[in-house]
């Protein structure tokens, strides 16, 4: 006999505004406890010092996490000139100092070199795995490792403010895998300065934006009231870029059993029109509710993830 999961069968997304000093894992645990949910996960780690959008999936929404992991993101951060730290943020040990204070104009002139597909070496204090161990664990033990460069995409970078000569605020739109601390490291090197990240906020992950995010403390208070489910976003919120296809009750039943369905010619044409080049994934809906994520092949929809509500 199958073992019953502990917790409630709560499904949906939370657009959380993560507070500083809380790890992403801790945030997920607190949200899961607040909803007494059976399972939970997040889409994209935020450093403990960082704040902002941390999408958290509950229940069946966890099946859509991989699609949000690939989503574009927006970060707003403050560069503090004059001091470089081991972790390239304000908590790291000081490794170098400098009197150089780049002007706003110099920063604006340098930023275009970091837009587009660029090669970026992750910082030593990062979650990248080296021989099965996290780089930040090795760095904390004083073990030096050489991390391989990776290609990341920064779509746009702009200076948004210069509060004083010691600081400049920058905002970037980027793809997955981009390290803000590495960008600040490389920007400082290009400008002949020392620098670190003194503040970092993620304002967007795909369709999740900070103006719609809920503070962790407010969420925990809300979960003590009857309106706790009002904070949940639909499971399909993470699937903005995935075309949707309405199916019949009979076809929905087949998909939920893990069986493929045959598409009508007009359905095939509609999906081909909506799918991105090279993509095959579509979401099947019945009665306005998501049934399965599927791959279209040879005029058929083959279920890859089935939702059980």
> Major β-sheet, in short?
10 strands, mixed
* Helical segment count: 8
Number of strands: 19
Principal-axis shape equals: globular
- The rounded distance between the terminal residues' Cα atoms is 20 Å
Top-tier CATH class of the largest domain:
Alpha Beta
CATH topology of the largest domain: the name is Pseudouridine synthase
What level of helicity do the residues show? Answer: 10-25%
Give the helices and strands as they follow along the chain.
EHEEHEEEHEEEHEEHEEEHEHEHEEE
Low-confidence stretches: none
Total domain count: 3
Assess the beta-strand content as a share of residues: 25-35%
- SSE class: alpha+beta
What is the overall pLDDT average?
A: 90
- Shape-level CATH architecture of the largest domain: 2-Layer Sandwich
**Name of the CATH superfamily of the largest domain:** Pseudouridine synthase
Rg over alpha carbons? 22 Å
Write the layout of secondary structure elements.
Blueprint (H helix, E strand, L loop, with lengths): L11 E7 L5 H12 L4 E3 L8 E8 L6 H5 L3 E9 L1 E3 L8 E4 L6 H7 L5 E5 L8 E2 L2 E2 H6 L9 E15 L2 E8 L5 H11 L4 E11 L2 E2 L4 E2 H7 L21 E3 L2 H8 L4 E2 L2 H10 L6 E6 L2 E9 L2 E7 L3
Parallel strand pairs: 1-14, 3-12, 15-17
Antiparallel strand pairs: 1-3, 2-3, 4-11, 4-12, 5-6, 7-10, 8-9, 10-11, 12-13, 16-19, 17-18, 18-19
